[in-house]
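Appendix B. Chain record.
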Amino acid sequence: MPELGAPLMSLDNVSKLFAGYEALGNVSLEIYPGKVLCLLGDNGAGKSTLIKILAGFHQPTSGTMDFNGEVQQFKSPRDASDLGIATVHQFGGTFPLMSLGRSFFAGVEPTKGRGPFKRFDRKFANGVVVEQMQQMGITRVFDGERLVGSLSGGERQVSAIARAVYFGASLLILDEPTAALGVKEAAHVLRIIMQARQRGIAVVLVTHNVTHAMTVGDHFAVLIHGRRADYFAKGERTREEITDLMAGGEAMAQLEEELAALSGADDPSH
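Structure tokens predicted for this chain:
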């Protein structure tokens, strides 16, 4: 792994138990500003548990977490959010029946007026959301009153990422942001991830898609059964090696043996 300077966030031997079941076991990671860490693994590998720990939804059973060189013990997602850790879920975490302006500022609504005359500043909110989405390439959005539900999946992802960037996220956690998208929309979301990296934001990308990971990733962690199976930098593994790791290696080898046996059984010369 090349020298990258001081990490923004690091995990040291973090474990998580649920009623005696070990969802994570002694996982260590480093997340760097302006870099994309791709978190890879099959279903049940522990990826969701890990990012919920990063975001303050779960507390580790053991191990330590540092943020900017200081040990942290998040008691809630608010603790993580206060440090600039933002999580964007697969469908953007947005509200389909809410306007773009309202959704963008949910929980931090800008207001105008005083006392009993204080009210939501609709004009300001709508102007900001349109400006931010236009800057991120969503040029067909020009009305902040538009309902979130009228956006495509990719546009919702961009809206959620734009919101996190606008409010000063230093660490952006993206949970399967391209999973339900077509090729064109997925490519746009990947471009937005690269824009965030160029702004110096640390990104954790959770994905099953090795091609997407290799397109934007700087370093990679593969989880298998809650354990870190591999940790490497861009260019240190081939696509085939990564895919094999995600499948568990041994399972892939067994499948290849079974396919070879079937092929031999179908061969009349045997």
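Further analysis of this model is presented in Appendix C.
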